[in-house]
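Readers of this paper often ask what the protein records in our data store actually look like. This encoding replaces a full spatial description with a residue-level series of whole-number codes. For reference, a complete record is included directly beneath this paragraph.
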Amino acid sequence: MSKSRKMKKIVALIVAGAFLVISGVALAEKSSPQCKKERSQWMSGDFHQHTLYTDGSTDFDFVMGKNNEYGLDWWANSEHGGGINRDGLGHYWDDSTYYPTNPIKGDVATSGGHQVMWRWQSLRDFVFADILDARSFYPDKRILSGLEWNVPSHEHCSTGIVARDASAISAFEYQFDKNDNDTSRNGEATPYGTLEKTNGYIYTLVNGVKTVTGKPYPERHLDSVAACSWMQKQYDNRLIDNGWIVFAHIERAGSWNATNGGGYNVEHFRDFNNAGPDVCFGFEGAPGHQVNPFRGFGNTVTCTDNVCISKDFGGTYGGVGFYSAKVGGLWDALLGEGRRWFNFANSDYHSHWTAGGDDFYPGEYQKQWVYVDDADRHGWFSKEPRRSMNTIANALRSGKSWFAMGDLIDSLEFKAESGRKEASMGDKLKEKKKIKDLKLTIKFSSPAANNYGDKPVVDHIDLIAGPITGKIDPSSQDYTKPTNDGTMVIASFTSADWKKDRDGNNIIVYHVKDLDTSTYFRLRGTNLACGTANETGPVTTLPSQDYCSPLPDALMGENNADKAFADLWFYSNPIFVYVK
């Protein structure tokens, strides 16, 4: 570590120490409201954020500090693959005053007049050391190593690998990132197999000149599927402790076609999940960039007669992409197969809105909550960091998770009961005959104030249910069908429907009678009343797909922080109930 960086950390430590002396108890409670009784089993986090290592505007240490300041319990440094010309403090890799010996390996390439370092190297040789440093600086946090993968034939994807070092995530980036054109490691033997480029391109060398040729887009897609298979293989063979592949801002590039590629269609998520069911298990339904003028996406959205159009399907709807916000839409199509395909949120922080950017800091607006089971008994202050990080990846995979905007809620429990059988988010409840009385219980709370100084208040919570009809064979014409037409809002609850327990939690109990078909159940909630002009649709007769639905955010005009904090939502992951 450089002297300047050491001094920076010493100053930060003094400031942090003073802050903790003044408000340590308050900060601990802000970090995890539910840790008071359960040793922080529910933990909030963010796994998609950027620093000066790629296209972020602030340095690595600053971003780590913001994660901590806004009360996150865990986070992952997850930023772009490819070739980058600067380090995490903004120094150019070829700056001889800072790096007397050029540290760059691999094929020579330049950007902005400076030589780039391929991301496989910076992940392995520099970023991981910074992550270890951050772990020691924030010993009660769990900080993971990730990558925003540039997916062949598609958009971006948040990935992460838990291992003793960064060699595995480095090998993943080198082989599969479509923006990494380095070929210097081809044929290299590693614990994960011999490395070869599988990133949608063909590389040929003639008379010392490298030629890069793109494969047809369907073949590029197959390379992206191969990446899921590769990580699944490493996980199965215990060459990595854990890993995840969660696709990012999935609507932004629009639909995919075989001529030009593009974003993601439902069949792609099915392909990915089939190839890596234990590592490829979800997407970011609520994108970052929530202060973007078009709320979460960079695409211009135009609205005529309340119909909004853009390549990203009309922008976001209550800050959530179309694939998740539409009841009976693409996410429900995946859940209707019984796929363990879960929904997440992130900050995608690059630059704060007060500094000319379009982002909130990690944890400032969106939080991803996961239920962490420390079955290895290493606990919160684990002496074995790999095991500790492992529990976060397990929690993401489990589906025991939910996300909220603007701390609309800071705790959520959702469970189903049939007799003595019980299941919560991500779980399966199975019965061999019709369930005469399925009891659903929702327990939630909201904080006294959020990071905008407001007291968030839930107006209503919708209970959404859809039929589970089984996994679709790739040869079926329904494999490309992006809807689950039987999914409906079956009930909606306001403050008149919930009671408070002695701890101040709000409790809702709902009974589903005579359930004779396999069904999943999920929740969404908001601070907005039904029929709010340009924000929520009207009350309709239940069950309904359109009940009080979030409307395109573009109807409110250009977005800003005030508007984002006035329009809050939370989404749970599903409970699967099977009836034979």
